[in-house]
Amino acid sequence: MSDSLVEEIGSNLSFGGQQLRYRHHSNILNCDMTFSIYLPPQAKQAPVPVLYWLSGLTCSDENFVTKAGAQQHAAEYGIAIVCPDTSPRGEGVPDDEESAYDFGLGAGFYINATEQPWATHYQMYDYVVEELPALINAEFPVDGSKVAISGHSMGGHGALTVALKNPERYCSVSAFSPICSPINCPWGQKALSKYIGDESQGHWNSQDTVELVKAADDQLKQSMPVLIDQGDADNFLAEQLNTQLLIDTAEQVGFPIQIRFQSGYDHSYFFIASLIGEHIRFHSNYLR
């Protein structure tokens, strides 16, 4: 493994594999970034499939690593898991004027900002789709042709939109409690208006899972496996997530998305930890 592009800043043995953390300079984001990667024991013998996990508001690359309990399942199925940070960070990277949790640092929304001062650093879509995978493929024993993506809340929005816009790159996609329609909720409307500018919906539609499902062609509907789990006790469900809107839209256009409501579960990592094994097994079916 080359030392020229990444600097190791953490290493732990976990279920026979390695939970690692790295720092690197991102040319796309114009700042230093951290990411975490779990390499299952199978990676010692040959390149393994890789699952990208996109975390939610206020998170870093470490929340999933320490709370989801995914390493055991990743070791069982022989899948690497890459966890990027949720926004650019560091000196000179702008934040929300009021340090609100739902915009700025920790809230990059996995889109490319076009408005200043955000555009200089907030290019999270290109980072997740282009720059970070190129780095991972070059530096680690992963099979870049066997890639899946998943995420939670803001990261669920990110995973779904990234996969639907790049079906040639991903074998499958899943999400926990995703923001299904940013154009129709306060979190999304704030982020989109600031990052890419106010306008009548057309410019925003490419950042919205519901709108991407509406526009999906038959090939995409047949080729992209989608699994979504949503807790019915989630306190953000009614105002922010728009799960039912996605269900209705998928039914109307004939997109076979598997969306499951889970009784009693909330928006927390307790929910993710309870079902992450099922999601990793789901992805393993398409990463062979």
Kindly list the characteristics that best describe this protein.
single chain; 288 residues; alpha/beta; Rossmann fold; 10 helices; 9 strands
On the 0 to 100 scale, the average pLDDT is 96
Number of domains: 1
CATH architecture: 3-Layer(aba) Sandwich
**Estimated helix fraction:** 25-40%
Shape label: globular
How would you write the strand order of the largest sheet?
A: 1-2-3-5-4-6-7-8-9
What class do helices, strands and sheet pairing give? alpha/beta
Low-confidence stretches: none
The number of helical runs is 10
Largest sheet: 9 strands, mixed
Give the arrangement of secondary structure elements.
Layout: E1 7-14, E2 17-26, E3 31-39, E4 48-54, H1 63-67, H2 71-77, E5 80-84, H3 124-139, E6 142-152, H4 154-165, E7 172-176, H5 186-196, H6 209-215, H7 218-223, E8 226-231, H8 237-241, H9 243-253, E9 258-262, H10 269-284
Helix pairs in contact: 2-10, 6-9
